[in-house]
Specification:
By secondary structure, the chain is mainly α. It has 13 helices and two strands, in the order H-E-E-H-H-H-H-H-H-H-H-H-H-H-H. It has one domain (about 65-294): Orthogonal Bundle (MetI-like fold). It has helices spanning about 15-40, 55-65, 65-95, 105-110, 120-130, 135-145, 155-185, 185-195, 200-210, 210-230, 230-235, 250-260, 265-285, and strands spanning about 40-45, 50-55. The protein has a two-stranded antiparallel ribbon. Helix 5 packs parallel to helix 11 (about 230-235) and helix 10 (about 210-230) runs antiparallel to helix 13.
Length: about 290
């Protein structure tokens, strides 16, 4: 069997085709990353008018700061909770929507809509529902005997941002899980049903293993999402409080850089955050992917 190769007669055409993507990568990733690396070894005044080269003093100061070390723990709990909750809810909804029922297209459309909501809007929405004074969910929980108050209770505040961030990501996960379910041959499931396997056994022995590539991909995406793309949700719901109990790493980068005007320390935090996400992604593809069957 011969494979057809595509050749370009013009030697500059391939470079011209990839030039827009290269330009976007250079302007929005390479350049900001290099600026952060450079600023992380500088001590600058609040107005950026003078700077001093201090090597790794900004990093040493960070790891001596108990608030920064606390943000590590908060971020890990937040990332794990957001990933598990969003993927678990999306998988459950996808399995239910994959059934042949009347009006299934209507349900699928409404399940996808929340992804179009801006992160700040999602945060404000959940802030209103859990507001200790006017929130309907806070009122319901008080009727059930639990005095919800995320403005005073750190655990309530952390749970609130986990719920808000997971709700925002459920629709994205739902799309991929549903596509993965629809790609599974029905003949395999029907054969297992004929052999006497129940619904739960069919799911865990046939469906779920075949969904492992999709689940692995979504796990990587959700972890990166929780580390980088949840600033607006935290800012709109808890603003890092109470007492910076919900100040995740990406939020602390903004607070120290734009509120405290510690430009060098903020740049050092962004470098560490970037290295953490890169390391997590490498570990996932290096070790966890081996357990995935394609």
């Amino acid at each position: 069997m011969q494979t057809k190769r595509i050749t370009f007669n013009n030697r500059w055409l391939p470079y011209l085709l990839v030039a827009p993507q290269l330009a976007i990568t250079l302007v929005f990733f390479i350049w900001p990353a290099s600026q952060a690396l450079y600023q992380s070894v500088l001590r600058e005044d609040a107005f950026g008018l003078s700077s001093e080269f201090v090597w790794f003093e900004n990093f040493e100061t960070l790891f001596d700061d108990p608030l920064y070390l606390s943000s590590f723990k908060v971020t890990l709990v937040f990332s794990a909770g957001t990933t598990l909750l969003s993927m678990g809810a999306a998988l459950l909804l996808a399995v239910m929507a994959d059934r042949v029922i009347r009006g299934s297209t209507f349900y699928k459309t409404f399940l996808i809509w929340p992804y179009a909501v801006a992160p700040a809007v999602a945060g404000v929405l959940w802030w209103f529902m859990f507001n200790p004074t006017i929130g309907i969910l806070a009122y319901t929980m008080r009727q059930l005997g639990y005095d919800w108050n995320h403005t005073l209770n750190a655990n309530d505040a952390l749970l609130l941002i986990i719920i808000a961030a997971a709700w925002k990501q459920v629709s994205y996960n739902f799309l991929f899980f549903l596509a993965g379910l629809q790609a599974i041959p029905r003949s395999l499931i029907e054969a297992a049903a004929i052999d006497g396997a129940g619904p739960q056994k069919r799911f865990w022995t046939i469906v779920f293993p075949l969904l492992s590539p999709t689940a692995f991909f979504l796990m990587v995406v959700n972890i990166v999402y929780s580390f980088f793309e949840t600033f607006a949700i935290v800012h709109a719901t808890t603003a890092g409080g109470p007492g910076q109990a919900t100040s995740i790493l990406v939020y602390k980068v903004w607070r120290d850089g734009f509120v405290s005007l510690d430009l060098g320390g903020s740049a050092a935090q962004s470098v560490i955050l970037m290295l953490i996400v890169i390391s997590l992604t490498v570990v996932q593809f290096r070790f966890i992917e081996r357990r995935v069957e394609y």
